Queue: 4 jobs
Job 1
Amino acid sequence: MYDFLWIAMCGGVIIAIPLAILGNFLLWKKMNFLGDSVSHSAILGVALAAIFNVSSIIAITVVCFVFSFMIVYIKKRTLIDAQSLMVVNTQISLSLGVFLIYIFKVNTSIANSFFLGNLLGIKLEDFIYIIFIAAIVLIYLIVYYKKLLIICIDENTARAEGIVIWYHDFLFSFLLSMVIAMAMKLIGIMIVPAILILPALIADKMFNSIKKTIIFSIIIAMFGIILGIFLSIFINVPASILISLILVFLFLIKLIKYSLQ
């Protein structure tokens, strides 16, 4: 009877792994809002997928990748700060996406389904794709872990070490786009940034070990997703909203605790 619940929890737990890992690196790179900005650009991907009748996951991944890599590239090539670029990116992608939806009379129910996602309606092919993405992110992290940390700490040192920064920016942007595209189908455009950044913020500065910080952020993300799914069954509220509220509540507890010290 509750098979769909266990599938949803397994899918949510697995998608929490790459989201939490990438969220930590975004925090260390001081690009916290990149996930939020790229997530909002997905509305343009949804519009293009409906207009050209292609896979929404592919369209969203391509659009998210173009915008995320563009932000990183322009930031390195100009004096414009990253936060300003992210604001501009959000406005361009949202405005253009909504414009195309109205001009081409795209079925708004398609776009609406991506705002809150449908975690409880996860399908077998979605589950397989989630496992595939999580595996790729984990392999990437294991292979390039030290290089990524050096890039996050100091890019000049990374260059002196012979690390090709643009190559890792390219790979990181692509993986981030894949994860966001899959995650927003399940938990929605509005909630992805919360699961991407809040677990990393909660775990930040709680441990002296970077590995422990990453592991704890994954546990926090998993806890929020599992509890959110369970509560959604009893109070008839979308799981994605509850997951976001749980993570915000945990962050506020940490904030209060540190403010009283």
Note: The chain has one domain: 3-259.
Job 2
Amino acid sequence: MSYTLYRGINCIFTKIIKLTTMTATVTYEQNLRTTCVHLQSGSSFETDAPTDNKGKGERFSPTDLIATGLGACMITTMGIKAESMEIALDGAKVEVTKVMLSDPRRIGKIIAHVTMPALGLDNKTKEILERVGNSCPVVKSLHPDLELDIAYNWL
């Protein structure tokens, strides 16, 4: 493992940051489209600018990926915890909606509605899984000004 020491502005604070390998490459193609390649797997996808910002809207936009990444992270971390509890979350689904703001243009709100399959879980287990989803790495990485509206529906 390699570590580097990072000194903040005016050396007010220091932080240890673990160095890792590059995750992806993003190549600008043309007409507001990019190609993104995941380096470990070689899988790829394209993005487009959204139609309300001069794009074609034929692919996920970069801000769509943030909202979608939130849903994927929530359900994945819940799945990790569920597996450790010998619970299968097959069929669980997160529907995400992104609300854009202007001046400056940014995501103002992400709505994430999580629908869990009928598993017959007790309330304590449901609370544990919801707490895991609500504290996934993407949730912890988003700016505190970004409003999150997260709801769970247990069938």
Note: The longest helix spans residues 62-84.
Job 3
Amino acid sequence: MDRRQFLSFIAGAVALPSLAHALPSPPPRPHRLNLLNAHTKETFSGIYRDDNGPIPRVMDELSVFLRDFHTGDKIGIDVDLLDFLSHVMQSVGQNQATILSAYRTPETNAMLARKGFKPAENRWSVRLLSSLRRSRSTPSTWPDSA
């Protein structure tokens, strides 16, 4: 191997790991979540996806778990969001996340706005990151949340 070939090999070896991080990674295995709803005290623990994809019965359970607890209204849950949550939890070594807020209807947002809360524009991303951050703190350090 000549010097030019050797340097090309080294440059490729250095560049490949950074390129690998830019590619989307598959969801972590197992596709399990352990969740606590801070308001209702309900819990969810289970596998939501298998090798064939999302498990419909479990996705329905998660839709109920992540419902607007003020009205009872629920929506279908995006499995990519659950994959992201599972991946982040595994990456930071957490085995449970506390859900502070999930789906909210426009009526609930209006009611909370009348009470002085300013509803976030993008509920899922804001509260997902908040719940992960709070899972590393203690309840006594949490500010009030709607």
Note: The chain has a mean pLDDT of 75.
Job 4
Amino acid sequence: MQFKIIGEKGGRELYALGTHLLIELKDCNPEILKDLEKVRSALFSAAKKAKATIIDFSFREFQPFGISGIVVIAESHLTIHTWPEYHYAAVDIFTCGDHIKSEVAASYIIKQLESKNPSIIEIKRGLLSHQNEKLPHKVSLGSASFTEEYHTISR
């Protein structure tokens, strides 16, 4: 499997708020790619195997074929778009913090979709520290945490 990391400097890791895996799945089993339940199950199980906290989900099947879906996790998201006619799927796994095992989720999805030609690009997101110091994943804004404030505003 090809694996390229964007967000390294001189061979050393840079501290980031999140990791974004862009996964190209070529030569997949087209019968799986057009099966809504199998695609949904692959993403759900991948999130669970990565130790993510599932918050919500949405999947849509298109005619004559193809599926798009998202599993929203507390740590960000997993998304998929399938093109069974090309034996291809595009998957994104974006995770924040450092306790989620995104590579476990990626490997699981690759196996479930039976991709014979996968590749992964890893992008470090939120490279904000000028001194390359690890930043806390969650911080407080005034008296309320950012998460509490966001849910208050968005609801």
Note: The chain has one domain: 2-154.
